[in-house]
Amino acid sequence: MTASLIPLLMVALLIWFGVFAFILVVDRRVSALERRVEDAQRRLGERQAAR
Amino acid sequence: MATFAKYLLGVWVAACVAGTFLWLREVPTFPDPQLARIVALHLPNAMVVMVASIMAGAFGWRYLTRGRRPLDDARSKTAAVLAVLFCLLTTVTGSVFAKVQWGAYWNWDPKQICIFILLLIYAAYFVLRGGIEDPDRRGTIAAVYVLFAAVMTPLLGYVVPKYLPSLHPANTRFDAQYHLVIWSMTAGLLGLYSWLFNLAVRQERAQLALDELAFEGDF
């Protein structure tokens, strides 16, 4: 193990966790969008059934 | 992807990065013996490019042969985008290695030229997509082109450089430690690839449904 590489490792891990957190946020936004679409599809289905 | 799998992937890749920096041995025959570790980032990225490219071609083929579904076109495009992303990461990690090992970030080595051509092929793919407005025509032409790109990827990545004199080390033998980290990182990056792929396809599917709803006048 090389102690001189620890700062570089910290930078690499910081970048990775930054990217990871960003993808998690995007994942949640896509899930919210999917829920909105499902709601809209359900509303449309109900409206068509009522006609 | 299940929430547990996502967090496991986060920890897995972090462990691979930590293993690359702290566990892998330096290679004394290198100008900078520490830099040999970069192979554990460079090779897995190159392998993901191969998988992504083949998947782009496979979905292109599916689009052409199974009813030209817009979602298959979206899957093919997403795989191509990810192939480019990982190709850029491969190029960057390779350039850092080249700077230390061969004295310049870019040496016009056959493998570097091949990866440059591959990036140009994919750049042309996106220009092609952007230039056609009709979705059906765009999907068909893009699917044919992406099949060509999928065939070119292994040719440019492995076959052509194999028969040309190269600065890249030939017949490199990695020890068990390197094998373990390289394959673990490959598994992690493939997990990351499938998560990103899945995410982009879900977003594309939702967008297609939204377009349909807008057409029906509900959104």
Question: In words, what does this structure look like?
Answer:
The complex is a heterodimer of chains A (51) and B (219). By secondary structure, chain A is mostly helical. Chain A has one helix spanning 6-50. Chain A has a domain at 23-51. Chain A is built from one helix and no strands. Chain B has one domain. Chain B contains six helices and no strands. The mean pLDDT of chain B is 89. Classes of the chains: A mainly alpha (51), B mainly alpha (219). Chain A binds chain B through residues 1-2, 5-6, 8-9, 12-13, 16-17, 20, 23-24, 26-27, 30, 33-34, 37, 40-41, 43-44, 47, and chain B through 6, 10, 13-14, 17-18, 21-23, 26, 34, 195-196, 199, 202-203, 206, 209-210, 213, 216, 218-219.
Which key phrases capture this entry?
A: 51 residues; mainly alpha; 1 helix; B: 219 residues; 78% helix
Helical residues, percent of chain B: over 70%
Helix content of chain A: over 70%
- Could you tell me the mean pLDDT of chain A? 89
Compressed to H and E, one letter per element, the order of chain B equals HHHHHH
Spatial extent as radius of gyration of chain A: 22 Å
**Spatial gap, N to C terminus of chain B:** 28 Å
Uncertain regions of chain A: pLDDT < 50 for 5+ in a row? Answer: none
Multimeric state: heterodimer
Tally of extended strands of chain A?
0
Strand and helix map with partners:
The complex is a heterodimer of chains A (51) and B (219).
Chain A: H1 6-50
Chain B: H1 3-22, H2 39-65, H3 70-102, H4 110-131, H5 135-162, H6 176-216
Helix pairs in contact in B: 1-6, 2-3, 2-5, 2-6, 3-4, 3-5, 3-6, 4-5
Write a short abstract of this structure:
The complex is a heterodimer of chains A (51) and B (219). By secondary structure, chain A is mainly alpha-helical.
